Each structure stands twice: as structure tokens, then as C-alpha cells.
Amino acid sequence: MESDENFGELLRQWCGLFITVHDKRVYFLHQTAREFLLPVAVCLSDPTITRTWAHTLDICQAHAVLAESCTVYLSLRTKKDVVTELLDYSAENWASHFREANVENTALISLALRICNPNSTHYTAWSEIYRARHFLPQNATNLILASFFGHKRVVQILLDTGEVDVNTKDKYGQTPLSWAARQGHEAVVRILLDTNKVDVDSKDRFGQTPLSFAAGRGYETVVRMLLDTGKIDINSKNKYGRTPLSFAAEKGHETVVRMLLNTDKIDVDSKDQYGQTPLSYAAKNGHEAVIEALASSNRP
Fold first, then answer.
1. What is the DSSP letter of 83?
2. Strand, coil or helix: what is 20?
3. Do 27 and 17 form a contact (C-beta atoms < 8 A)?
4. Where are the alpha helices (DSSP H) in 76-151?
5. Among the four 79, 250, 261, 276, which has the fewest Cβ within 10 Å?
6. Please, what sign has the CA dihedral across residues 151, 157, 160, 163?
7. Element (H, E) at 22
8. pLDDT of residue 36
């Protein structure tokens, strides 16, 4: 086996100016390389194109290959294993590859369920590595984890068993819907809402609701889905007195602000425990379009 340093140099020699190696990672040297490899609509429909490499790289399939490699590898690991670079990479990236691949393979989904069982040694092996670099819900169920990562097929399978609590909460009181909304996973939010069993206004330990999370992060589609349930307390406050409108205004999410303003019973001038209104937060951060929207809503 070549050392990392020697392999990196060999790779550069093989690929010439096509790639660069930095900090043990391989990158295309220029954006045009990516454009050359990725498929485009005009090329996919053009029967005259016969080049071997041009526009042949399917990103979804690439994620699927990596998702399978990582998931299979992690399903064979236990807590006592020595941490290798492959284990390190798999632990940190398997979930994103799995999500981007839109995995439908039942065998692979079964493996994902195995490594996302919080009571298994497989889960412990990768979650400790992941948590060292990223946030991961604590005291989470497999449904919470699948919702957190945006694994829609896994979420659907778990719900289909009829054996999971759709409103289960983690250590900080967040539900599967809370996490899906917070992460902007639209498909998972839709699946959970379609059960007609979720508490759409569930509050965590800090009083945050799914709408608060989605509004604060500017996830317009998620906000619309939540509002369309007709079960949302639009003026729900967290423990500090802040509303979804307050969070959206603070971050300058104009479209979300206007969506909230168009609802009935919205309290535009709601004050938090510090006496701050949505307009105060928008002004503090210089969000002119949001300031105008809020000011206009108060005009007769």
C-alpha cells in the first residue's frame, strides 16, 4: 500500500491538472471540470454525444455508492474498534450521502435502521465520532435521528410499522417534526404531517416550536406546510417571549415575514422579555425590506 503522501502525488501524476490534493482531500482544480462531468439536460437528450466521460457522472448515484460503502462498513463496526480514517469518514458523512442518494434499496435501509438504533453498539461506534464534530440529538429515538438527517424513506418505514411514537422527544424536548423543520427537510415534514398525529405546536424545553425553527432559518416551504395545517399558534412564544415572526425578522427572511403577516391574528408588535419587537430586531440588523413589510402591516 502506498503512503498517503505518495498516493496523493501519484494521483496528481495520473490526473495531471484535472485535480488538486489538499489536506488529504481531492478537489477539481477548476469548476469547469465539474461542469464537464455532471449531466445536463441538453446532453442527456442529444443522441449525437458519444464522448466517454462528458456529462456522465450522476451525482445521485455517486452518493449512493458512498452511502452503501459507509453504511455497510458502519454496520460491521463496534465501539471497541480502533478508529481508522475510513471509520472516521464513514461516521461523519454516511448520513449526508444516504440523504442525497435518495436511497430506496431495502437492504441498505435495513442497515441504516441497524446503525441508527440508539441501543446498539453500531450506533455508539459512529455517533461518538460524529458528535465530536457536529451536533447530534441526545436521548434520541431512531425516528428522531431519521428526521434529523432527512432520511425520508427510513421515516416512512418506521411510521408504517405503527410501533413508533411520532411525538417522542429527545433530551431537550424536540420531536421528529421539530428536527425536520429545524433542518429544512421538506419531504420529512410532509410525511410527518400526513400522519395527522403530530403535535404541530409542540414546544421544546426552551419553548421553541417547529414553526419557530423553520421561520428563523428561512425555510419557506416548511413554514407554508406548517401554516397550512391550520393548527398553528402563530404568536407562540418561547421562554424568552420571542415569536416565529421575531426570529424571521431578525434574520431578514422577508418572504417568511410576509407569509406570517398574511395570517390572521398575527401580533406584529409582540414584545419579548427584553421589550424587543420584530421591528426592533429587523432594524437592529438593517433588514430594510423586512422593516418596510412590518411597518406597512401597521398602516391603516
1. P
2. strand
3. no
4. 85-101, 106-115, 121-131, 142-149
5. 79
6. negative
7. strand 19-22
8. 59
What is the chain's Cα-based Rg?
23
Packing angle of the helix pair 152-160, 106-115 (nearest 10 deg): 80
Return d(Cα 33, Cα 27) in angstroms, integer. Answer: 10
Collapse the DSSP code of 59 into the 3-class scheme (helix H, G, I; strand E, B; otherwise coil) and give the result. helix
What is the H or E stretch that residue 180 is in?
helix 176-183
Q: How far is C-alpha 74 from the chain's CA centre?
A: 21
DSSP 298: T
pLDDT beneath 50: ranges in the chain: 1, 42-50
> What CATH number should be reported for the domain whose range is 58-297?
1.25.40.20
DSSP state of 16: G
| Phi, psi of 18, deg, nearest 5 | -75, -35
Report the phi/psi class of residue 139: left, alpha or beta, with left for phi > 0 and alpha for psi in -120 to 50.
Answer: left
Buried b (16+ CB within 10 A) or exposed e, 149-184: bbbbbbbbbbbeeeebebbebbeeebbbbbbbbbbb
Do 202 and 209 touch, CB atoms closer than 8 A?
yes
Copy the grid coordinates of residue 153: 424513506
pLDDT tens-digit readout, 38-70: 665 544 444 444 455 555 567 888 888 999 999
Q: DSSP 3-state helix, strand, coil percentages of the chain (rounded to 5)?
A: 55, 5, 45
Residue 27: helix, strand or coil by DSSP? strand
Share of the chain above pLDDT 90, in %: 67
Give the residue from 187, 114, 195, 190 showing the smallest Cα distance to 151: 187
Give the 3-state secondary structure of residue 289.
helix
Task: Tell the residue number behind the cell numbers 442527456, with chain if given.
Answer: 44
- Asked if residues 201 and 232 have their Cβ atoms less than 8 Å apart, the reply is yes
Angstrom distance (rounded) from CA 212 to CA 209: 5
